[in-house]
Specification:
single chain, 52% helix, two-stranded antiparallel ribbon
């Protein structure tokens, strides 16, 4: 097993069933037409769009956005740095960490991958079986 496969296996084994279902829901949302893709920030309310990580936040609770695109979980996210990544609590709900979030942000912002292409990356990385339908919480 090479280093990348070893790393993938480490993340896959650490997932709880709830985290796995959150990932499945996220993949489904990215493949839907519900969200408009933007770059560089979780959510831009003025452009009416989100990055892939903003979609993950929105799925946890769409009522936690501030007027300028801040995500309040459990309190206001205050710095520009934090506007680019989900709060740690949200990352944990998906079994993510800062390194993985930065990789997914890079797919969105630097590599110009579509939401559907990012969904493919997430599905492949976590070896998700998307035959399971997204579930409401």
């Amino acid at each position: 097993m090479n280093a990348v496969e070893h790393l993938k296996e480490k993340y896959r084994q650490a997932l709880t069933e709830n985290q796995r279902q959150n990932l499945i829901n996220w993949v489904a949302a990215l493949r839907s037409d519900k969200y408009r893709q933007i770059k560089g920030i979780l959510k831009d309310p003025f452009a009416n769009g989100m990055c892939c990580l903003g979609v993950a936040c929105d799925l946890i609770n769409p009522n936690l956005w501030g007027p300028d695109g801040e995500y309040y979980y459990p309190t206001k996210v205050s710095s520009n740095f934090e506007l680019e990544l989900p709060p740690i609590q949200v990352q944990k709900l998906y079994g993510l960490d800062e390194d993985l979030c930065r990789q997914f942000a890079s797919y969105n912002d630097e590599e110009d991958l579509s939401f559907a292409e990012i969904a493919d990356k997430i599905e492949s990385f976590f070896d998700l079986k998307t035959s399971t339908e997204p579930q409401d919480k």
